[in-house]
Structure formats: C-alpha cells, structure tokens
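In response to reviewer comment 3 from the previous cycle, which asked for concrete evidence that the modeling workflow produces usable outputs, we include below a single protein chain processed end to end. The sequence was submitted unchanged, and the resulting structure tokens are shown without manual editing.
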Amino acid sequence: MTVSYTLKVANSRFGGFSKLLFCWKGSIYKLLYKEFIVFMALYAVLSLVYRRLLTEEQKRLYTKVAQYCNRSTDLIPMSFVLGFYVTLIVNRWWAQYTSIPLPDQLMCVISSKVHGKDERGRILRRTLIRYANLSAVLVLCSVSTRVLKCFPTMDHVVEAGFMTQDERKKFESLHSDFNKYWIPCVWFTNLVAQARRDGRIRDDVALRLLMDELNLYWAKCSMLFHYDWISIPLVYTQVVTIAVYSFFAFCLIGRQFLEPLEPGQEGDLDMYVPLSTLLQFFFYAGWLKVAEQIINPFGEDDDDFETNKLIDRNLQVSLLSVDDMYQNLPPVVKDKYWNESTAQPPYTMATASETLKPSFLGSTFDMRVCEDAEQSQMVEASPSVPCIQTPLLSRFFAAASPAISIKNFSRGSQAHSRVWHPQTDGGFPSPYPKRSEDSELVARIEEEETEDEASRASKPTMPGSHPGRTRLPEASETQRKELLLIQVKAPSSESVGADGLEAWEP
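The workflow returned the following structure tokens.
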C-alpha cells in the first residue's frame, strides 16, 4: 500500500519533517536495517582482530594497508554515480505511473456519443467500456505481481466479470507468440464501427472522437508494457552497485582505529563506534536502496503502485458513468447568483481573513512609471533613418572623425568604403552638420586625400592582383602623429538625437 503523508506536511512548521522520521512503514530504516547490521558486525570483527589478535609487526602492516584503502575511497565518484542513477530511476518511476491507463476520458465520450436508452444501447456502452478495462487488466497482469496474484488464470478474469465465456473462447482461438492485451481494443473498434452503421453514433465526428480517445488509452497500455520490457541497461545498475559495495569494503578496512607507526607519534582519537562512517553508509547505501525499491513500482513493496485498487476503481466508475449516469441529469435551474453581477461565495470564520487580501493583478501593477513627459512621448520608427550611436554608447566611444574614417576604411574592402564628396564651399560634409568645423582640419584632410589619390594613380598594378583593387600606401610617421593630435568631442544625447534625423549626403 502506498504510504501517503501529504496531510502531515500540508503546512510548514517547526520540525515539520522531523515527525516523519519516526514512521516505520515505507521508511529507510525498514529498507536498510539488515545491511546496516551486517556492516556494523563486519566492522566490529575487524576492529577486534586488529586490537586483540595481531602482533606489532602485523599491526604496522595492517596500518599501511588501511591507509591505502582510506586513500582509495576518494577515487570512487559516489555522489556523481549515485545521483545521476537515482535521478534516472525517479523520472522513470513517475513516467510509469502516468502511463497507467485510466478510462475517465474514454467513458465520458462513450456516455455522450453512443446513444440509446433501450437495452441495446446499454449493452453497447457497457461492452465498450468493459473492453477497455479488460485490456488494462491483461497488460497489468503482465507487469504487476499484485495483479497476477489476483488474476492468475483466465478463469479468474472471467469470474471477475471482465470477460465472458464466448469472449474467452474467441480470445484463446487467436494464436500469437506475443502478448495479446491488444485484442479487446480491436473488438472495441469493430463494435464502434457497427454502432455507427446502426445509427447509435450519429456522425463521423463523434466516431473520430471515440477512436482518438481509444488510441490514447491503447498507447498507454502499450507504453506500460514496453516500460516492463525495456529496463535500464544492466551494466549501469551493475556499475552503481559495484561502486557502492567497493566503497564500503574499503571503508571497513580504512576507517579502523590505527595505532601510530612511530612510538612518539600522536595517534587519532580512538572511536569505538565510527559515527561518520555509519552516517555515510546510511546515506549512500540508503540512496541505492531507494533506487532498488522504485526501479519497478509494480511489485509488492510499501511504496509500489496499488494496481488492484486502480482496477477496482476504474471498473466501478466507468460502468457507473456509461450506464446509470446516461441521460440521468439533475434539473437545470437558475443558480444562486443569477441576479448578481459579481458572484461572491461565502466564507467561514476560519477563512474570513482571506477576503481582506487584495487580488493579484500582476507583478507590474504597482510599479511606478517615470513621470517625465518627454520619456512618455510616442515616436515613429522610420527605416530610412540611419543607425546612430545611442547616448549610452556615446559615453564610451567617441565619434569617428572624417580623417580617421577615410584612412582606415580605404585600406579595407573597396566595396565597403565610403567616399565623401566636397560640398560647394569646398569642405566635406560632417556626420554632425550642426557643429562648427575647423578649417585647418578640413584643409589637412583634403590634402591627404589628394596625396592618396595621386599615389594610387602612379603605382603600377601588381601581377595577379585585381585591376580594380589597389592597395593604399601606409601612412607616414608624421601623418600618424598628426592624426593622433586630432581630438574629437563625444556627442551628447541632445546632439545625437538631433543629428540622427538628417541623412548624410553620399
């Protein structure tokens, strides 16, 4: 039976989990106490042999062996191996539970789409849902020891009412080397097709809905069978088991009390009961026992799934929904809040304080927005406006001067270089036209550009080079020094916002 302690931890309080430590059923103590006793007995035997039976020479030899074993425990990655393995086992355990077929959705569709209050209609609905339950029973008999003990033979299945004698003969007449849990699902599809021809199912949409729900139910039965068929690779389980056992085998020898090798050397504290080693065994071995218990949750452990209870519940609820509840509705009347625009159910005195709390309207509901009117103005984004530096970036990057742009960009790819043509007054257009420009600086830039063009025209084309692509000569040392003397003032946020609205003239 599954151990449920949900109510005990419904509210967080002081020492909430500590009360769970005294439970015995389904506890780690019940799983581990036998291995724990064996480990303590072996440790005590080795301790007595070392203290009483060994000679001084043998003790020195044992001390060296114990030190080697104690160092070897650090080489075994216990936390990594066990943690990854137990995580895999827990995920698989929950996935198997969600794969247990439940007829709740299917029974609602059968009750609403298979019509007829006569005896034939009742037989159809009850037979359809019984076939679904029969398929679940057959697959659970294949994977669960509890269900197999409840239905050891087909006679028990017939006696329980999941199958008739005629259906059993038909079932046994179909020979197959594989599990035949799928046969009742095929009977279901054929019976649904017959009900559609007879008009019990009124349209193809209802038929499709029935088939979709059956396919989902069938897929869960199949997945449950394959979880039982395909286990976690055996080598992984063996590696984890060997790692745990070898770790504590080294601990049995290496964690013993040892006398110092030298006469004047100070020894460790003589702990007759190794508390830290026992706690380590409790944690690591308990971790392994948890994986051992839930690797197959269809057994008979305390925390395994109660499959027999699930079968009883599914049969009772499904038959009730498709038969007794078919077209059996309470009268439809006006509800209590018919004339009220806002429905407010009453609270008891124990929960009246909850009405004083405000409703949750969103995490940003109480957020204060900037009251600056300029920041709240709407602006239109135009693709024709060139990309400019933002005020934040302008704090770190100074605006590039025309001289630096020409000299650096012309050395790269010719396709990406930008040529600036002189304006009518003989100057170059500035990226920031509202700023005053230095005439000497502009004259120096024009002179350098003229020299570059003259050098490109006079330099012959090298063999193997593209005629349209010429390499510019490197700048002289004097030019580099002069360029370094050029100071460019970083644009402010107001100038960048104003300059960004004017396009450059190519």
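The CA atoms of residues 9 and 17 lie 7 Å apart. We consider this sufficient to address the reviewer's concern, and the full set will be provided in the supplementary archive.
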